[in-house]
Every structure is written in C-alpha cells, then in structure tokens.
Design a protein that fits this description.
The chain has a domain at 4-246: Rossmann fold. Strands 2-3-5-4-6-7-9-10 form an eight-stranded mixed beta sheet, with helices on both faces. The chain has helices at 88-101, 117-134, 149-160, 197-206, 226-242, 250-270, 273-287, 294-305, 307-336, 339-355, 359-385, 391-401, 406-418, 422-434, 447-453, and strands spanning 4-5, 48-52, 60-64, 75-81, 104-108, 137-147, 166-170, 174-175, 185-191, 212-217. The radius of gyration is 23 Å and the shape is globular. By secondary structure, the chain is of the alpha/beta class. The relative contact order is 0.09.
Length: 455
C-alpha cells in the first residue's frame, strides 16, 4: 500500500524537529502460528502502569485506568502514539478527561520517529491486540490518536485496521483516497502557529467524505491542550453513540451540548469570527444525530453571509500566499544568506509574533519560525552525515531560531566533535542536557562524540 504524506513545505522536511532516535522493533518470537494464552492486565482505577506485550515481547505500552472503572463494564479506549515513544506523556496530559468520560488511555512506548511505518505498524498491532484480549474494552469503540510523527502512525493504523471507530490526528497526517473505513470518525487538529498547520487544513479537506471535524488551537507544534482534546473526545464518543456502540445517556449529551454552547458564546463575545464559525461547524457535525442543532445552524448561516467573515476569508487567503512566498525565500536563504542576515530575520519574526496586535500576523510569524526550525533540523542532520562544511552555518541558524531545543545543541555537539573542536563539543552537549536531552543511547551513533564524552 502506498501512502501519500500531505506536506506543504520542502520535501526533506518530514518529521518533528525535537529529538529523534532511530530504533527498530523486532519480534523475539514468531507468534503467527501460535495460540497465545493471554494473561489479564490488572487494571487499577485511577492508576497508570507499564505493560509488556504478550503478542510481541519487544513491544511495551502504558495504560491509564479511569477512577470510576469497574470490572463489570467494558470501556472505550484511545490508543496514543507519541513521536518520541513517550507513551506516558499523553496519558498524563489527558487523564482528567479519561476520568470524566470513563475511558481507557493507552500510550505506545515502542513507536517513534526514525522507524519505518512497517516497524511502527508491528508495535501498533501488538498493542491493540494485547489490549483487546487482556482488558475489558468495548471493542466497538477503539480510537487511535497521535501527534506529529505519531499522528502519521495513527493514520496508517486506521487505514490498516477498519474495526477502529475513530482517529484523532494532531499536527501530522498520512492520507490515501478510500483507505479509511467510511464510518471512521476523524478529528484533525493543529495550532495556529504550528508549521504543520496547512498540512492539517489540507488533511481535513481530504477526509471530507468521512464524519469529521477540524479543531484549531493557538498553540505551536505540540500536543493539543486538554480543553481542545476534550472536544475531540466528545466528537468521537457522540459519533459512537449515534451508531449505537454506546448506551445513550440523555443527561450527559445535554451537559456536553451546554458546554459547546458556552464555548461558542465565548468566541462570540470576543468577536472572533474564525473560531466562532469553526466551533459552530464542529458543534453541528458533533450533535447532528443526538441534539438540537437548529440554533447553531442559523448562526452558522448568518456568519457565512456576514462581511466580517468574508473579510477574514479573503485576508486568510492572502496570508497563505504570502507565507508560501516567504517559505521559498527562507529556503533559498540557507544557501544565499550569511548568519548575520539570519539573526536579523529571526529577530524580526520573533518581534512580529509577540508584539503585533493582529493575531493572524502573529500566527504567520510563529509558523515561519517553526518552518525555519524544522528546515534547519533537516538540513543540519543531512549536512552532518555528509560532513559538509555548511553544517556549521545551518546549526547556528537552528540554535538562533530555537535556542531551547535540545536537539539543536546535540547536533551541534556532534558537528563540533567531528571537527575536533572538543571543548566546544562538550559545551554544546552540556547545553543539550540542560535543555532536556535524554536519549543517551543516540551518542553511540556518533563515535567521535561518544569517545569524547565517555573515553
């Protein structure tokens, strides 16, 4: 099966620009012809635990069990894929939502950036099989979710396993026409300052034949905040409810309906025409079979006829054109401009992001900064592997654009060590540690840095 990754930036830019560790997953035993006696996972209400897969002992995952869990009731589940194999991260971030909605959260610890889709697929299949066999899961309501590179894994997993009921794709996507089940409920999510913003807008349009909503936040490239993810969870559960995969709870539906109405009122009060329109559209799609949406539909039609909304659409179209032109210029500047030019350009973008009163311009500047960061990451890694003399300049750009990114300092340490600048290499590696670098095993991939740190 061929997958088409929706990218609106240069071809070499393919993954999250934080720390990336290459790792493969291999089965320790061939279980294809074996009948496995699955052991029950001891789920404890309100607690997290790490589990080794019985399907494939090389795979592990983390589980969060909601506080109101009872052995007598099967629960929906959401499987998470983090780009750095940190399965605990989304569980901790969204555990309050699991408690509120009474569902299991499972995070994969064996899929990450740098692995092939086939390797990630092995991890995803083993995790899903184990959980469905070893936990009291409502197998009719199984949802996959991911962020950045992990979102791409979630997309491919949803293409391969048509029994899944939902997909929550955050800041990363893979799409093939007709590959998703027609009943799959899809949530696309992106931050307004996310360098993958346009990719997720395009993905949302590509899956328009499925039940779908698009949720926008004010964030950069990161896991969405809990309030936005709550709307994604609700959409998925309301869709399952409409298909009779969950028991109807009139009181709960009315409560959620009221919450969405409050969010709409909030954006109306702020006179935020974009977010008002977007939230109304999502509310209509979410509650179209479970609640009264007539008032929302009337508001939506009124907004779409308004001059404010049409001015917003025109301005957004112009900004998208401007952004594409700026990306071309920045891409050429990696070759044509010196570090002094870059320092001024990055400074101007940071000032423009923080000081403008126009949120659309602020978001544009934020996305361009993210574009510089991911491009610098991709270029610098390639140039270091080729031992190219331009690597030093690109790394300087990377560190200027994202001074708190541990990966920038780690790659700089690799470059300095490769060029026998030992003192500078040690200083940069220390900076990487201070910025949160944790993947010590990656040092083994760079012998000169390894010998310098642990001779």
């Amino acid at each position: 099966m061929k997958y088409f990754v929706l990218l609106l930036i240069t071809p070499i830019i393919f993954s999250c620009n934080n720390s990336v560790k290459e790792k493969s997953v291999e089965a320790k035993q061939d279980t294809s012809q074996q009948v496995i006696a699955y052991n029950k996972i001891n789920c404890i209400a309100g607690e997290s635990l790490n589990v080794q897969s019985q399907t494939n002992p090389a795979i592990s995952f983390s589980i969060y069990t909601p506080k109101n869990f009872s052995e007598s009731h099967s629960l929906p589940v959401i499987y998470f894929f983090d780009p750095h194999a940190d399965g605990k991260l989304p569980l901790e971030k969204y555990r309050s939502l699991a408690d509120e909605m009474n569902l299991f959260l499972v995070g994969c610890n064996s899929s990450q950036n740098g692995m092939s889709m086939e390797e990630s697929g092995v991890a995803a299949s083993a995790m899903i099989t184990d959980c469905s066999k070893r936990m009291p899961i409502n197998t009719a309501v199984q949802i996959v979710a991911g962020f950045s590179g992990g979102s791409k894994v979630a997309c491919v997993t949803a293409m391969q396993h048509h029994f899944l009921s939902g997909l929550i794709a955050c800041s990363g996507s893979v799409f093939e026409e007709s590959a998703f089940s027609d009943s799959l409920a899809i949530v696309s999510m992106a931050g307004q300052k996310d360098f993958n913003y346009h990719e997720m807008v395009a993905f949302n349009k590509a899956v328009s034949s499925n039940p779908h909503i698009y949720i926008e936040t004010s964030n950069t490239h990161e896991w969405p905040p809990a309030d936005a993810m709550k709307m994604a969870f609700q959409f998925e559960l309301l869709h399952a409810l409409s298909q009779n995969k969950l028991t109807h709870d009139e009181k709960l539906v009315k409560e959620w309906h009221h919450e969405w109405n409050d969010v709409i009122s909030h954006y109306e009060t702020k006179k935020d025409v974009n977010m008002t329109h977007q939230t109304l559209s999502n509310a209509v799609e979410s509650f179209k079979t479970t609640g009264d949406i007539s008032a929302w539909q009337n508001k939506l039609m009124a907004i779409e006829k308004s001059s404010d909304y049409n001015r917003y659409v025109t301005k957004q179209r112009n900004i998208i054109y401007q952004e594409k032109e700026m990306q071309k210029m920045l891409n050429d500047a990696f070759v044509n401009q010196n570090i002094s030019w870059w320092e001024k350009e990055i400074s101007d973008l940071k000032t423009g992001e923080k000081q403008t009163n126009d949120p659309m311009i602020s978001s544009l500047n934020g996305r361009l900064l993210g574009y510089i960061g991911i491009a610098a990451y991709s270029y610098s890694k390639q140039l270091i592997n080729e031992n190219h003399q331009e690597a030093g300049k690109v790394l300087a750009i990377y560190k200027t654009a994202e001074p708190d990114n541990a990966e920038a300092w780690f790659l700089s340490a690799v470059y300095e060590a490769n060029n026998n600048h030992n003192e500078q290499a040690l200083q940069d590696f220390q900076k990487a540690l201070e910025k949160g670098f944790k993947e010590q095993s990656r040092i083994n991939d760079y012998p000169r840095l390894k010998n310098l740190i642990a001779p």
